[in-house]
Structures are given as C-alpha cells and as structure tokens.
C-alpha cells in the first residue's frame, strides 16, 4: 500500500520546522474534503504518514502548511499582513503502491517543494 509523508525545513533559521500545523484535503470536482490535520514534530516530520492504508487512493490532494503561525511563534516580525500565511501545495497521487514524500522548504518570503519518495 502507498503512503504520503511530509517534512518541513525552516530555511530562514536552518532548522527543522517543528510544531507546524498541516492539513490534508482531497480535491474532487473543485470541492475540498478535509482528511486529516497533523502537526510536525521536533524533526519537522509527522509522527505517522499523512495518508496510508485504505485511505490512500489515487486522486488530487492539497496540503496546507500554516507557516505564518510558525514564524510568529519564532518571534519573526512578519508585519501586519504576512507575505506567506498558509502555503498550499496541490498535487496528484497516481500510483496506489507508491511512497509520495512532499517536503517543504520555507522562509517567510519563499518556499520550494518537490516529489521525494
């Protein structure tokens, strides 16, 4: 069976992004259905896969990383309106037996991701 995992790296401070809330949604016909909410651990990872087992089905998904809250908790001055509030990554899972890893490298003003495995 396949699984979906994630990892957050704070590129501003050069450390794992700990205690970041991450939400997973399934995207169908333009509508979002929330599947799970997780929080990253001290290593910037989740304690369990974000998606696995019978819940892991092919389709379109969306991860939402609440990064402004994280940086505010790190005492970073983001101004009245943060440039990046939530980072949204929409992607497809096409292989039921594959391991999809979606890392997020983030700072208050930029982010990058890729498909790992």
TrEMBL record:
Reaction it catalyzes: 5-hydroxyisourate + H2O = 5-hydroxy-2-oxo-4-ureido-2,5-dihydro-1H-imidazole-5-carboxylate + H(+)
Keywords, ordered alphabetically: Hydrolase, Purine metabolism
Sequence positions that bind substrate: 7, 45, 114
CDD domains on file: TLP_HIUase
Known EC number: 3.5.2.17
Keyword ATP-binding: no
Domain Transthyretin/hydroxyisourate hydrolase: 4-116
Cross-referenced InterPro entries: Hydroxyisourate_hydrolase (IPR014306), Thyroxine_BS (IPR023418), Transthyretin/HIU_hydrolase (IPR000895), Transthyretin/HIU_hydrolase_d (IPR023416), Transthyretin/HIU_hydrolase_sf (IPR036817), Transthyretin_CS (IPR023419)
Listed SUPFAM superfamilies: Transthyretin (synonym: prealbumin) (SSF49472)
Residue intervals passing through the bilayer: none
Gene3D superfamilies (UniProt xref): Transthyretin/hydroxyisourate hydrolase domain (2.60.40.180)
Biological process terms in GO annotation: purine nucleobase metabolic process
An annotated Gene Ontology molecular function: hydroxyisourate hydrolase activity
Role, per record: Catalyzes the hydrolysis of 5-hydroxyisourate (HIU) to 2-oxo-4-hydroxy-4-carboxy-5-ureidoimidazoline (OHCU).
Similarity-based family: Belongs to the transthyretin family. 5-hydroxyisourate hydrolase subfamily.
Listed PANTHER family: 5-HYDROXYISOURATE HYDROLASE, URICASE AND TRANSTHYRETIN-RELATED
Subunit structure of this chain's protein: Homotetramer.
Name of the protein described by the UniProt record: 5-hydroxyisourate hydrolase
Gene coding for it: uraH
């Amino acid at each position: 069976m396949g699984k979906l995992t994630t990892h957050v790296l704070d590129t501003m401070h050069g450390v794992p992004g700990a205690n970041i809330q991450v939400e997973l949604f399934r995207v169908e016909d333009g509508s979002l259905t929330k599947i799970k909410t997780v929080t990253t651990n001290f290593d910037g990872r989740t304690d369990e896969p974000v998606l696995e087992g019978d819940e892991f089905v092919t389709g379109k998904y969306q991860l939402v990383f609440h990064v402004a809250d994280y940086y505010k908790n790190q005492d970073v001055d983001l101004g009245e309106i943060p440039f990046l509030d939530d980072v949204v990554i929409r992607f497809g899972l096409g292989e039921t037996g594959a391991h999809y890893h979606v890392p997020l490298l983030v700072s208050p003003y930029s982010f990058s991701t890729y498909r790992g495995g």
